[in-house]
From TrEMBL:
Gene Ontology CC: ATP-binding cassette (ABC) transporter complex
Keywords: Signal
Residue intervals of the ABC-type glycine betaine transport system substrate-binding domain: 55-315
UniProt GO MF annotations: transmembrane transporter activity
Biased composition (Low complexity): 27-50
Protein name: Glycine/betaine ABC transporter substrate-binding protein
SUPFAM superfamilies: Periplasmic binding protein-like II
Annotated segments matching region Disordered: 27-53
Transmembrane segments: none
Family matches, as InterPro entries: ABC_Gly_betaine_transp_sub-bd
Cleaved signal peptide residues: 1-18
Species of provenance: Ornithinimicrobium avium
Amino acid sequence: MRRTWLIALPLTTAFLLAGCGGGGDPLDSGSGDTGGDSPAAGTATAPAPDGEGGEVVVGSANFPENELLAEIYAAALSDAGVDAPTKLNIGSRETYMAGLEDGSIDLVPEYTGGLATYLNPDITATSSEEVLADAKENLPDGLQLLQISQAEDKDALVVTGETAKELGLSSIADLKGKAGDLVLGGPPEFETRPNGVDGLKKVYGLEFKQFRSLAAGSNLTVQALKNGQVDAANIFTTDPAIEENGFVVLEDPESLFAAQNIVPLISKDVVNPTVEEALDAVSAALTTQNLTQMMVQVVSNGEDPADVARQFVDENL
């Protein structure tokens, strides 16, 4: 059934979003559901407590970390007696917001800063509390944000250790007067979003020699940075490739990249005490540290996100 509310912002034609680790990304390529439906992290569905469990279709953007988080949500909901089928690897924020609007999905793992900027390109808030408040203020009527987690995965501008040493880079501000000779890599949306190329120019006065569209945070981005095909790249801070390759995350003294706490974005139509309690428990258990470790399992070790999600839920909830 189509939702009665409408997304206030026009949908862009870009179906890509940046992600952490290998595979596709929501700031990346793919115009639709490239993954397909799957059971909720391989778990059996128990009877709903007091018959209130219901069904929640869990979606994800098309990058590994968001898929992992969706599997965690689905596993926790299933354990609580909620029928929680998944629709993974849908696409970018522009794409999965449309899925929430048309009712094909009910829930996605979100990032407060990215969502707030999507809903309000003129946002000036940077702290976790202010960013969350701004996002809530601008949400479409049919959507709700539940409890945020302390886990945070931020956009970052990353260079190799060699580039940082050669150019004397420790912060984004250090690129002033040097960016004109450098190629910047990132997801297609990074070229036009307020905290992307436009933001780097507006906030830091940077104009790069070229922008190269990549599946940010994926293996392609990492290889492009390692091989010198790009000189700087937009990579998420929980990506294991940063530490594994000795990359340098440039500091962001002007807070171009706002707080990015992970939070469930859900349709009000499916919220009930059982659903809310299960998802709040996930948020309470998630930390940046354990999320980063799970990304090592998924990206570096090649483990199935559903298996990693099940382990996390069994050990923490």
